[in-house]
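Discrete fold record:
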Amino acid sequence: MGNAESNAYQNHLSRFLPEEQSDIDGIFDTLSGSSGSAGAKNGKATKKTVTLAALQAYTREPLPEQMTVRLYNGMKSIDLTGKSSGLSEQITKEQFVIFMSNLLKGNADEKITIIMRMISKAEGPVKGKHIQEFTEDLIMSVVHVLSYRKELKGWNLENTRDSASGVKALASQLLSELKLADGTKSVGPQLMETNFHQSVIEDWVYRVPQISIFLSVIIRQGLHVLHSLPDQTKDILNLVPGCKGIKGRGLVSLFDIPSIMYINSHLPAELQHKWQLLFSSRLHGESFSQLCGHIVNKGPCIVILKDLDGYIFGGFASHSWEVKPQFQGDNRCLLFSVFPSLAVYTYTGYNDHYMYLNHGQQTMPNGLGMGGQHGYFGLWIDSDYGKGHSKAKPRCTTYNSPQLSAKEDFTLDAMEVWAVGDLPESAGTKSKKSILDVDPEAQALLEMTGKSRQSEGLREPIEEEDDDDN
């Protein structure tokens, strides 16, 4: 190896702390040890290398095989000599370290050549369908490896909806950010056959942080390298929030793992570490009083529902829900769709009709709403539980969201509410209080509906803190 190459290699190596370097050395030695030795002796120690077979043997369980092949193609693309890369079928230590350095520590410019080869082995532009396959592989591999390593923090493939459709939905959402050189976007069948040049993919990787985050997770967890060191960013630590309140209850959430990761990434950073189930129509019954009793004064929440046509959608409420005839919340609130497409819709600045919860009033609408206006909400669940609407012709004024349900007026099939972040002290989770003890408005609304003091049905079940749900 010449001086210039040696210096470049040392520069890459110096990006890693000493303990990180020894971690990378260890994994390379393990991989190359199972490869056997290759290279000419000529008086020197044999140079260790890694073969595809060794990589496949090492990652057989943690990673799907097609992702291992993509990682190998990425490593092989590292050009050390200035000569045409890909002449050798084996990965050298230098290639391995530079691959790690560029993908884990590099910018979009440093990552792009590797990512291009991971998308397609052929040089030159790549077709949209190959980018789609790569993106779906990437998301599927993240779900697979986090499940395999027991890093889903209380979520699992049994207590969430099928991840296969979630993988496709998230891939479609990320691909919708692909822009051609002239700034236009290709969609649908046109996208599949469009050729994308390296500069366009580089711009996409730069603008869509999930691509780099997912690659980092796959390398760290798939190869089991640098996965326990403190250099992990908040993006990786909070990729999946901790899940509370679902363990042992036989519930399958309306969320799938990819949609949890995507929605969580749009929440305020201080709320991304934990979701706690407050209400499920399947557990707590189909009752608006039950809904109010479980979600009032519990801090920021995510509401998610499914209509009878199978559409899944919801919203994030940035403040505690309060029963009152005024709009509440702030511009951090948002609406989202999970199925048939995954998307997030944020505030427009047009009005401040972020969130609304009312019950037992004769002059104002009674129900839970987000965005739009009375009688014309972006998302509305009527106090006559089971009915709702999502009106947007053409878009909701508050969030610029389209109609989220299959039909404008829909019938509710199931609903969940999740508290996000830490519950406020006043939520009384440890104190066996009824919601009526902490919220006089909830008591008043029950009196209006003839259920005065019969509040046992609204008392929170006392749940054990299930800190380790895995």
About this structure: The chain has a mean pLDDT of 86.
